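Priority: low. Protein: GntR family transcriptional regulator. Input follows.
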Amino acid sequence: MTSAPTTSSPSRDEPLAAVRRQSGARAVYDLLRQRIIDGSLAADERLTEPVLSARLGVSRTPVREALRLLQAEALVVEQPTGGVRVAPLAVTDLHRVYDVRARLEGLLARDACERARPADVQQLARLVSLMDAVRDHEDEVLRIGAQFHGQIEALADNRWCSELLRQIRGHVDRYRSLSARERVGTTDHVDEHREVARAIASGDPDAAERAMREHIERSAAMAAKALGEPPPPPPG
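Result:
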């Protein structure tokens, strides 16, 4: 098996340094959002302006604005007693988010299938091969998987689907990280993406939509397992 390419990982302090240089609400928002998605800021963790301001080395004004943006995205929730916490991760929410995602991305796969040219099909196949090469490396699997889905979204050219997906992207990405951890070391993720690519290559929009929805439904099941939901009983 081909090993993952060796790259120098950015220092954990680099994003913090960027925030201090820019000191704007957008930079603070981007950093906090990423740390919520990757779990560095844990679900239900209390966030306060003074602590975050001191930790990031910026004034409270950009922190306050960043928290407001995160609250609008429902990635943080306001507490009855004041202040905010990182939004919880819950199986019920997971299934709701992934049901919406499956419907939207299924439609994108259908649209992409109808528009795909040979070069587009080859690009999707290339991304699947790259994912196969790094299947044991969670970060790379997530990165290439996101690129694969982004390629389909761009090919579909459906701005309404894209806008609706953007609105739930942060929540999808939080649960996607859980799903990826359950799949590390398996070929499941690769096989599912390969099936989507093959369905698009076949020129059958129904098959493309079905393959994408099945892939996302399996991802939801993996994320639910990571949250402690027991697997469904076998059929029959």
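Residues 1-11 have pLDDT under 50 and may be disordered. The first strand starts at residue 46 and ends at 47.
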